[in-house]
Structures are given as structure tokens and as C-alpha cells.
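Contributing new records

If you add data, match the layout below exactly. Sequence lines come first and carry their own label; structure lines follow with theirs. Keep one chain per record. Anything else will be rejected by the validation script.
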Amino acid sequence: MSNFKIKKTSIRLVVALKEEAQIILDQFKLKAVNEKTIYPIYKNEEETHWLIISGIGRSNAAASTAYLYSYSKASKYTSWINIGIAGSNKGNYGELYLVDKISTFQDKKGTYPSTMPKTTLPKMHLFTSDIPIVDYSDHELIDMEGSAFFDIASKLTSKEFICLMKVISDGPQNDIKDITKSKISNLIKKNLLKIIDVISYYETLSEEELQIAEKPKLFFEIKSKWHFSATQSYKLETLLRRVELFCNKKDIKEKIKPCRTSNSVINVLNSKIKKNLVNWSEF
């Protein structure tokens, strides 16, 4: 029997420009979907990682995020990541920053995204504008999509599954007019290892949460044969999680086959667990 384990990661990337996306498309082997879509959409062969190119601006960021959610059938345990360039007065040109606050002209108080715990990556506040800004003095980071992406993503999942990261591309010493497609690509490429580390964290987070949320494989099959109260259902799920660590599906079904009531199913599973706590012959 193959030991291949199906990955349960669920990552959705929203990127404004193809130049920002290209190195990520290459790294994760994302290919364009085989049909016409409103926005360019890419996915890997396993369909665990998806990327959409939104175009510039808040309306595009909002619409594309919602579109990717629907098109890719993302779950509530999907991690949503926005990657792009940003202007800055305070940061270092070419450096990657995580966003821990987002504000706009309309919402100056702002919102506060969760960020990776125990990371050495620097964090900054992001100001999202509807127009390019060349006066950087009042803001740490400036972009044109972040707030809209976050507004929509936070309706699709909890904040812990949302990440915004920005690479500084312009500022007082680096004129926004000097930004070129090749410069954008190089800025993302320069930070690729850091970006991969961040994505890896959200891959693990998504996978772990999905595994916790999923019912054990036998749960619904057993419930269809015996009547379980709400309390019994919870106990059944807990017992199945434990017994499946050392007993395969076929063996479990054989053990409970003679049972006539839900209580007897629970008793059999309990007994099986007690007998196998230190029974290394099962391994």
C-alpha cells in the first residue's frame, strides 16, 4: 500500500501585477486554468495553491478576491495572502515587510491583521490609497490594494489566516517613476526565500486546522447505523480520533459489527483503546 499522504494545504494568493506574480508562479509550479476567467487565475496540479492577478486598485483587489474564493471553492480554513510592492518613507528599499495595521483616507483608525508569531520579519503599517502618492511623509507603507483585499478576505475566513506582505519599491530616494517591470520582478525575486517561509507557515496552519476540523473517516458511517445523541456523537468522534491511531478502518468496523446500540459501540471503542494503550504488537 502506498504511504502517499494527500496534502490538505489551502493557499490563495492575490497579486496585483504579473511582474509581482511571475517568480511565485514559477516557484510553486502554478499554471493558468484551462478556461476563460474574469481575472487571470493560476493553480498547481494538486489544486492546493491558487493565485489571481487582480490588477491595480481597491475595486479590483476586492472583486478578484471574492472571485477567486468562489471559483476555487476555498474553505474557511484557506489561508489568504496578498503580496506586492509598496512605497515607503521609513523602510529600506527592497526589503520585505509584514503588515500589522491597515488604514485608508476613509478609515484612518484602521484595522489590525494578525501576523505570524515568532517571526524575525519586520512589520509596518500600510496605508491604501486610491491614487499614487508621492508624499511619503505620513505613512510607513503605501499601496493601492491592501485594504480592499483584507476587507473581503476577513469575510471569508478568520484574521489568523490572512497575511499581507509588501516589498518597498519606491520612496524619497527611489522615484516611483523609475519603477519598471524588471525592477518589480527583481524585488520579489530578491525576497523569494522569505516569501516561501511565510507561505510555508500558512500552509501548515491551513493543514493543521483542516485536520482538526475534519471528522474521523468512520464517523458518519457509524452514525448512519446507530442513533447517537449529541453527547454521544461528541464522545464517538473523540474515541475514533484515538482508536484510528493504532487500528485501521476494517478492524474497527469488525469490532463494532455485533453492537446493537450506540452505547455498546462507545463501550467497544473504549475497551479497544484501553487494551492498546501499551500494545506495541499493533505496530
